[in-house]
Amino acid sequence: MANFPKVQEQNIAVFGEAGSGKTVLVSSFYGPTQESAYQNDLWDLVALQPGQGNRLLQSYLEMRDTATMPIQNRFSGITYQFAVKLKTTSLRESTKRPFDELRLMWHDYPGEWFTTDPEGDEEQARRLETWGNLLKSDVALILVDGQKLLDFRGEEERYLTSLFANYRQNILLAKDHLLAKNGPLVEFPRIWILALSKSDLHPGWTVESFRDLLIRKSAGEMNSLRETIASLLDTPKALSLGEDFLLLSSAKFQMKPGGYEPSEIDLTQRVGVDLVLPLASILPLERRVQWQQQFDIPLKVVDKLADGADVIAAALLGMKFKTVEKLFKNVAKTNKAIGVFTQLTPILAAAVAAAGPKLKEINAEARDRHDHLRSMLTQFKLDLEQSVTDNVALFRK
């Protein structure tokens, strides 16, 4: 019998310069789920490191109750570890589900590192170690600071040129270290989403407004960043940057006269924060199917595209664990890899194909049957669809 609970881990990397809102974002992601008024009939969110969870909750409560901003992370990369625990989990149910628990590893690259030199060899080693931790991520968020866009209104290219150049330089500085062992990377974030943080400062904007501004003001810089990332990769055509966009707002801020400190922070008014889990779990599966349909991708790269895509696809389709186990148990055996991937392709495509009314029907059916895993994942997929309808997100087609 398989180990219980069976865990599926997803990784997401978040990049943003100092003050762009990364710490507020992760606090706003976690904090509301710990309030007694929070209602979710499918799952609970748990911090795997209690001390880390307490600090995030403390930051959230201080923002909510005293309008106090959290202290920025300046000195080291942090991986926030969360578990999405399905409700009514039992050993009997576990024998039927591809997995019981979705874990989210949220990798935070300190903003100070984009604009300051390392203070000695120890900090340089920490920076390179942080890059190593980021390698497992399928998705990376690049934060564009909404406040900075206001500060540079009319000449946004000045800010954006500096922003993308800083991202590019940090990748170039890590390049030799990342490539030293095995050359071009098979596993590395391949979906880079450009996200407007503090989007509440631009109330009239849709995600298309944000995209159009970036293309008008910084298309060349975005292309340079994409080329730099592509230079790290095995099969660089399996990469998207400048094709996926997102509006993010962790809260609604009422500022004191002078505009430097908030007088009130309304954490109930959020935009895009609840998309983090769907982005980390569903988007890589969809992108893997797109790339496999468009490109001839080596098996070693396919195996690392969207970690867990096979298991997530099986869960979306309501497949039983024993069926999944039988189908996937030989993936790691090279002599059977081609046959296994051939069998996987239609399963992945079928999981991605469900959309619109059909997806809503599947979700409703899963809820009626108390299939919490399938309900959760189909809801994630519905949330991504709704974000596009609401002009909050725009994804590569």
UniProtKB/TrEMBL annotation:
Keywords: ATP-binding, Nucleotide-binding. Residues 12-160 form the Double-GTPase domain. InterPro entries: DO-GTPase2, P-loop_NTPase. It holds the Pfam family DO-GTPase2. It comes from the Bacteria. The keyword Isomerase does not apply. GO terms for molecular function: ATP binding. This is ATP-binding protein.
